[in-house]
Inverse folding.
């Protein structure tokens, strides 16, 4: 690594800068990450009010974000009851966000190399008949915006659309390990995705494809 | 003595309350919501003034907070740092610890403590400065009532987080210098003492007394009631008035 790259990485990983991780989203209605970190006074009222216990208080591993609320999609997704946006005293969560469709915590991305449905489709295409392929559809069936945020292409494989709110219920339910459907939190750039601590993620995805879907 | 009884009742009720409120929330009773950083009692918003000040320093003035600090500020203008002695769960924890005789002995040994207003102001300004540089709220990490009430919610709903370490550190510091956190570090206490005026409720020492020194010995905040009152370090716990055995009543409320 060149010296300038080291400096760049050091500065970009400044703990006071917003940091993102896959499957770790802000609550519904959260403002842009940098503003959120300044506005949130870590009062835990959103965590207290969350009836699904989806919201967690960030711990030591989250650096300067300690005390802020997060949804960890693999543990439990957000069920979009929108109680938390109503109790935030500082406006870090936008009170105007009342409808499920208005939430934009992130976007689900399907890993086509491990998703059971995609494996099934390719097995069918190759004409395999040994019965090892599974047909799953759990992400499609669990999606609160079924048909809108996710649909079954050719009645066969799930495809995520622009309407995905990033609630993370699909990641919570995904039967594969690691998850084949992951949430990219809003604001997470390609650069940060490449420096993520989930190495398989980088390898498994065609980055160009994600960016196109994402924009 | 009635004052002391009232204080204990409020203290224990509040301490139980920080655990009961999240339970009530689980039962979908939302009359009281929130932590000591931001509280909502039947629609009445109350916020910690120190937490408000830090949002000014992080460059994001949160407008809804502005209205909600009014109640604590009015309370401080009339009754001084009554928050610390009546409501703060950290004070309750420390006073409960002091009920154990060997712990009390360990806490109360050593030389009489000196309070420096200048050092406290420097620490407070320094903390606000650091918060301003970081650009994110940090005072919530070192305010014991904020940490305790938030962790109480987490104990009920989830598991406590790393912030709990601060409380353990704070209690450890007590053995070196009693109420060090309350006297110098706690941004909430420092912030509330900014609103103390000469007419604010406070014990005062007027006239002759026996000079027995009991009041200075009992004061948890290291204030000498004979010479120092009114003091921004005094949190109106009233223990000096209760211990005074002088029939002439030199120590009384100015109220």
């Amino acid at each position: 690594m060149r010296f300038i790259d080291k400096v760049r990485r050091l500065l970009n990983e400044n703990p006071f800068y917003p940091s993102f991780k896959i499957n770790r989203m802000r609550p519904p209605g959260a403002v842009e990450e940098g503003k959120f970190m300044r506005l949130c006074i870590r009062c835990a009222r959103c965590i207290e009010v969350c009836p699904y216990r989806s919201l967690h208080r960030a711990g030591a591993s989250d650096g300067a974000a300690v005390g802020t609320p997060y949804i960890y999609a693999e543990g439990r997704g957000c069920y979009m009851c929108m109680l938390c946006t109503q109790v935030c005293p500082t406006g870090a969560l936008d009170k105007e966000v009342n409808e499920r469709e208005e939430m934009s915590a992130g976007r689900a991305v399907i890993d086509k190399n491990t998703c059971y449905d995609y494996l099934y489709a390719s097995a069918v295409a190759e004409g395999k008949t040994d019965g090892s392929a599974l047909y799953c559809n759990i992400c499609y069936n669990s999606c609160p915006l079924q048909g809108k945020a996710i649909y079954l292409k050719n009645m066969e494989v799930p495809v995520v659309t622009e309407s995905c709110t990033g609630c993370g219920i699909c990641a919570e339910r995904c039967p594969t390990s690691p998850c084949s459907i992951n949430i990219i939190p809003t604001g997470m750039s390609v650069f940060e995705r490449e420096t993520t601590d989930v190495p398989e993620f980088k390898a498994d995805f065609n980055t160009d494809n994600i960016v196109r879907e994402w924009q | 003595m009635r004052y002391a009884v009232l204080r204990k009742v409020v203290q224990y009720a509040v301490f139980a309350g920080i655990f009961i409120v999240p339970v009530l929330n689980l039962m979908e009773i939302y009359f009281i919501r929130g932590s000591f950083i931001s509280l909502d009692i039947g629609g009445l918003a109350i916020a910690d003034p120190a937490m408000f000040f830090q949002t000014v320093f992080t460059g994001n003035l949160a407008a809804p907070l502005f209205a909600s600090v009014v109640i604590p500020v009015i309370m401080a203008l009339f009754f001084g740092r009554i928050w610390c002695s009546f409501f703060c769960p950290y004070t309750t924890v420390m006073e409960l610890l002091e009920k154990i005789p060997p712990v009390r002995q360990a806490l109360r040994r050593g030389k009489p403590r000196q309070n420096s207003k200048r050092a406290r102001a420097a620490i407070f300004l320094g903390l606000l400065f650091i918060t301003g540089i970081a650009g994110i709220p940090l005072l919530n990490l070192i305010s014991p009532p904020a940490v305790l009430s938030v962790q109480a919610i987490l104990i009920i709903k989830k598991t406590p987080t790393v912030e709990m370490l601060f409380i353990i550190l704070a209690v450890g510091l007590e053995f070196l210098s009693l109420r060090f956190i309350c006297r110098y570090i706690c941004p909430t206490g420092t912030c509330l003492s900014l609103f103390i005026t000469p007419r604010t409720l406070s014990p005062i020492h007027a006239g002759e007394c026996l000079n027995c020194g009991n009041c200075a010995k009992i004061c948890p905040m290291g204030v000498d009631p004979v010479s120092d009152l009114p003091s921004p370090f005094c949190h109106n716990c009233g223990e000096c008035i209760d211990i005074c055995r002088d029939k002439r009543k030199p120590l009384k409320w100015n109220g």
Notes: Chain B touches chain A through 39 residues (CB under 8 Å). The mean pLDDT of chain B is 86.
